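Q: My labmate handed me this sequence with no annotations at all. I'd like to see what the chain might look like in three dimensions before we decide whether it's worth expressing. Could you predict it?
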Amino acid sequence: MVARHARITIAFRNLKEAITGTGINRLSNLFVLTDKTLKDLLRLFSLLLYGFAVTPLTCFDAAAQNAMEPSASTQSSVRLQLKWRHAFQFAGYYAAHEKGYFREKGLDVTILEHKGKASPIEVMLKGGADYAVSGSDVVIERAKGRPVVALATIFQHSAYAFLVSKASGIERAEDLAGRRVMIGSGVQDAALQALLRRAGVDDEDLIRLQTSFDIQSLIKGDTDAFNAYITDQAYLLQKAGVQFNHLLPKHHGVDFYGDTLVTTEKEIREHPERVKAFREASLKGWEYALKHPNELINLISGRYNTQKMSWEHLSYEARTSQELIQRFLCLSDLCTRTDGCTSRRYLRSWALSLRTAPSPG
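A: Here is what I predict for the chain of 361 residues:
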């Protein structure tokens, strides 16, 4: 514990120096050395500011929850800002809404799809939302002095990666030198920046292109590497018959957290019980969503499908997400330990149910 706190202290100092220095490039160099410390920092922020560690999903005490359930007359309206458009990526929040978990906690929740260029944290800090789904960049924002607090990490590993066609001959991050690479310049792309730095590839080594957010850029050959979520755009490549590789940071020693539920210091200070209730209902929703993936796919298809994703596309997203979410998930009816275990038998049956379930209609 002493060693970890010492490492965190050093990281805080270096993080502040990086942020006040040359921005994202220096910051990504820092993360190459301290991606484990990044997770320590996330835990420390929540311990100091909210009183519990940022953890994988945990089991629920149903009796304790029932004792805290408020009456319908005490419903409190809150807004949750997503980091992208509706997809299985946010299935747990849809489940919490549709199964009444938010309502049981006295919450009337509006789920906001991402629009425009502002990040979820920016939207939240400007008063457009009370909670947001962000990523490990919450640490960067916090170190900049912004009053944001991490509540829970849903994706234990980031799904963000470079997608490349096999025909390009790119197999390692080092192979990106001299190639056309689509990547963002903001803190949201810190994991990919760190991957490049770890591989010894600097900005001047790349033909850097502004990302189009359209996988057709890779399919049409407009770029050699495309920044994307392997849980989503990889399906489109597969559907188009394009053989591809993905360069996932965690396979190259850069293992950031993925989607993280965050809020503001103001929300915690003024509504501590509401924050606790929102977190508990959200995690209960994720527990349900991961136990009933096909039901959630049908729900998204019917009520939240603004991207017009096919059932097969959503199934692919659910199946690939489970490796990034469920590895440390402890489900209340399957746990034999309380340290984040998951039944291997359950994981196998969960994946099998997605592969064999028929597409509706």
